[in-house]
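User: Before I run my own analysis I want an independent prediction to cross-check against. Here's the chain; please return only the structure tokens and, at the end, one sentence I can use as a sanity check.
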Amino acid sequence: MIRNRKWIKGVQAAALAIAVCFSIGATDATARYEKLNHQFMCSCGCGQVLGECNHVGCPASPVQLAELKADMTNGMGDKEIMDSFAAKYGATVLAAPTTTGFNLVAWIAPFAVFLAALLGTILLVRHWSVGRKQLGEPSNTPEMDALRERIRRETGSEGSY
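Assistant: Structure tokens:
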């Protein structure tokens, strides 16, 4: 009885392992397709990612998606597909700029501007704080004592200064 249960558990585990292996292989092309269609912009001018273009009657997205599927079916690699789309539709079809050549500026510029603004702010605050005088204790010179006494008389206050 116990031996039978172990055998059944072993068969179930093997069946599960086989099912997982087949499902991983089956979704690989789908995952690649989803990844690639989110790396392109729809060329109709809607400003949406190709895989998310949802406006009714879009003339471009069905054509581009079919072309993407055909390129994948023909065995083209991701880089080749991206290059062919950029050659056919222009560099604006890429959802993110490449990391080569002048396009590298698009990745570096936001960080450089942020760091420059941060440095400028630090220098400005430092400049403001250096120019400020530190207020010390009020002086107790005879002139200040006379002035305080006159202020007390004129305002009628009895507070201490």
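Sanity check: The chain is about 65% helix and 0% strand.
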